[in-house]
Write the structure tokens for this entry.
Amino acid sequence: MQTVQDVEQHVPVREGEYGERVATVEPGGVEYISLKERHGKPIDLFWTWLSPNLEFATVFVGVLGVAVFGLSFWQTALAIVLGSALGSLTHYVLSSWGPKFGVPMMVESRGAFGFLGNILPAGLNAFTGTIGWFIVNSVSGAFALQALAGLINVNLHFAIAFLIIVVAQVAIATLGHNFIHVFERWALPLLGIVFALATIFIFSKANFGFAAKPIPVVGEFGGFMLLFTATFGYAAGWNPYAADYTRYLPPTVNRAMVRWRRLPAPSGARPISPQCSSTWRCPTSSTT
């Protein structure tokens, strides 16, 4: 069996010195990460995967069960838990491949699809992920920035808010792997506090005994399966990037720990109480 040193003599190795530096642009691209450049710990994955999931789309997925599919609160909760857990389980496995192979997930997938066969899934991922999802995040982020500006009586035009969000995302992505890890670590406490307060507020308004009112076309079981697959896909949708944030870890790292640091961070979608879902926000105490 070849050692890591033997492998480095036969594969394209990423050039440049990067190490653990943060305020610098990550060199190279999809090349193999050499042994001397490996760094980090499995705990780094906890905030790297949990923090990005504390966002608008997570809430929107949680709304689907009650507002769209007509499920009860508990049916919605069960579908979300099962879908998120199973979706995260696939990511759990793929994340552990990063330290072993030292390349991004799209390169690793050549093992399954072949060099030419990988063009289709990689191309679809580039279109839906790097273009479609980027637009979704940018638009929702722009709306959020407008809302924050309104709190201090600043009328921020959507185009300006959109531009600020896009520039920020591109700058973070340009700096690359190490900066993203640091950014997510600092963002997690802030996002966690906001989501914790939102969760307390939402559940304080929830009608846990709300009866299911399934839509006639699919019924309760159909609605349950649709929400289950939606939450499964929301969690498994990160799979094309699973190894991207673990390929810098040393090959000697405990791969089981790599998996478990990902598992606590599924899609995180939350069921929204019936009276909140109709308007996509919870009523204040003065609302009748």
Q: What stands out?
A: Confidence is low (pLDDT under 50) at residues 264-288. The chain has 13 helices and no strands. Residues 41-277 form a domain with the Hydantoin permease fold (CATH 1.10.4160.10).
